[in-house]
Write a structure and sequence with these properties.
Elements lengths: L5 E4 L2 H6 L7 E4 L1 H7 L8 E2 L10 H5 L4 E4 L11 H20 L4 E5 L17 H14 L4 E6 L1 E3 L10 E5 L14 E3 H13 L6 E8 L7 H6 L2
Parallel strand pairs: 1-2, 1-4, 2-3, 4-5, 5-6, 6-10, 7-9
Antiparallel strand pairs: 8-10
Helix pairs in contact: 4-5
Amino acid sequence: MPSEGLVVVEGGVVTQASDLLVDGVVVVEGDVVTQASDLLVDGVEVVEGDVYQYMTLPKALGDCNVVFCATGSREPLDPLGPFTVDYNGTVNLVNVAARAGKVKHFVFVTSIGTDDILFPLNLFWGVLFWKKRAEEALQRSGLTYTIVRPGGLKNEPEDGSGKGNVIMKGPNSFGLPPREQPGSILREQVAEVCVAALIEEEAANKIVEVISKESADEQSMSDLFAGV
């Protein structure tokens, strides 16, 4: 398992994964520095970078050998947000990681529905269309990757319910009919899947879609990745 020099870039995974990641994390980009600085374990190096600005990223990446990327536009009224952040920002990071020659694994969090242009989230300026283009750039990069597509993200279980067990399937399994209902999953569970992707050999070069249900049987991460 790559255990030194992890890079966590932007968005939901950072705050939930902080207690799961090993020493040597470098947190990159804007708001993440603020959100994660009080949460990460001792000995973590925090480096600022900007996925919009390609030239800031090689220094931020440094000698890191793993990238966690959960970039996502935050302004629903910005028509350029999905192109600028979800696509171009991610592609910048992918290109820097590929050229560095040191990155052993790139874990990229996108979304269920990425394969379906009619999925409702695309009403927000084609956000899933641009996430799909970023996935394709990662797949062409030559990097070892795992693409994690979660269902609806939640911080806590709904009142009176447990967090459920993770269900993992291949691409285009969940979404609009005739696909299965997209469902939801805790951010904490998505973080666990991302970290497990570094350990499980069966996670390499796969796209996985994940939700959770209380009625699902509990499975190890090894079995979940092997089943895709």
